[in-house]
Amino acid sequence: MKYISALLMLSMLIGCTMSANENPPQLTITPIVGTSTGVTGTFVSGPSSTILIDTQMTPPEGNALVEHIRETGKPLTAIYITHAHLDHALALDILTAAYPDARLLATPSVAEAVNQLYPQWKQQFGEDPETSLARPDFVFEVVGDSINVDGVELEIVPALQGDTPDNTAVWIPSQSTLIGGDILFNQVHLFFVETPASEDRARWLAEIDRLEALNAEIIIPGHILPNLSFDNTTYDFTREYISLFDQAINSDMTAEEVVATIKAHFPSADPGSEFLLEMSANALKGEP
Fold first, then answer.
1. Which one, out of 16, 171, 211, 253, has a CA that is 20 to 30 A from the CA of 158?
2. Percent of the chain whose predicted confidence (pLDDT) is above 90
């Protein structure tokens, strides 16, 4: 655990609604907040199995996830990737090396994109790019409408516009828990390079409304500062941030002025993620 500066484990033991004559299993939902811009990896465990939703990015983060699984004493039965961004999938090699029998799950488009982009990610950020470039593709199983964990259904909400056009979320109605992927952020700067048009950001705002309508009690965003609550403040932060960025980027401000405006409005946002805001403002303003 010494390798990560932010590790938050929230265990929620809530009975699942099943038929009256069955004993409902207990699910434990444990979000882990890593060091890479507060990226989350979330474990969902039943009595006999565990799945991981997103692997985070760095070797220390991946190793910390492996350590957590070993401490539970349960097997890792599956890994689900919400979308094809390196901070949510780069540690796949570490997790699959430690748990080679774990099923890899994703929607078809996310699976294809991860395999296409993974060598490039490792070449840019990995510790052993030559080995990574030569490795075989990850073999994903195409996920349908849901993932079953010990008899409890986790519903997949597909094709959501977030910081990339092909995000997914995971909704666990029996636990009133939403794992929002990169549709939702809390006190971490957002990434807009893949949402260059105002129409893209308008769709993103509409997706937030759609997720909020699920009335989840526990909301786990794709990125969050440690020690914040997993609650509906993530909707407010993400919505306000997108709206202000859209207004600023469509003004006559320079990229530097856009960055200054956003930072001034969100003084508590993670300073380690400011590079995402700077990349976004420069790209959308056409500045180096």
1. 16
2. 81
